[in-house]
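A reminder from the course coordinator: this example appears on the midterm review sheet, so study it carefully.

Given structure:
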């Protein structure tokens, strides 16, 4: 997960610390060797970052992410380097957090969105009124 943490720090200025998720044994035994899950901390927020050992299809990523949210009770961020724009847009429409190192980080539970695929890093911060206007 060093690539993700380096990206968040060097490109976006987010100083996030992370360690292996201590409750990793909750993950199904057949899936456990195929994914890496760390518990990240930023300011007062704690969340998981998950990465698969293969380039999983979007439905698989969403299913694994939803399972980890249910197991942990914490926001879970998908980390995948090969997400196409349409896939990232789909995740955003469903408010599923993700990191695509070098391109975009979408962390709605922190009320912030980051793009770094342009020369100027862009940060969009949502206020409560804007969230109220978003449809589920």
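Designed residues:
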């Amino acid at each position: 997960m060093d690539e993700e943490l380096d990206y968040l720090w060097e490109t976006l200025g987010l100083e996030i610390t992370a360690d292996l998720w201590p409750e990793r044994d909750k993950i199904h035994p057949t899936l456990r060797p195929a994914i890496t899950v760390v518990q990240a901390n930023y300011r007062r927020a704690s969340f998981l970052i998950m990465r698969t050992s293969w380039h999983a299809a979007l439905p698989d990523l969403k299913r694994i992410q939803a399972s980890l949210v249910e197991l942990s009770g914490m926001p879970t961020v998908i980390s995948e380097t090969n997400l196409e724009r349409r896939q990232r847009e789909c995740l955003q429409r469903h408010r599923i957090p993700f990191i695509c190192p070098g391109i975009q980080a979408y962390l709605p539970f922190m009320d912030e969105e980051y793009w770094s695929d342009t020369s100027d890093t862009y940060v969009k911060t949502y206020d409560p009124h804007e969230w109220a206007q978003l449809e589920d």
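Residues 50 and 75 are 11 Å apart (CA to CA). The radius of gyration is 14 Å.
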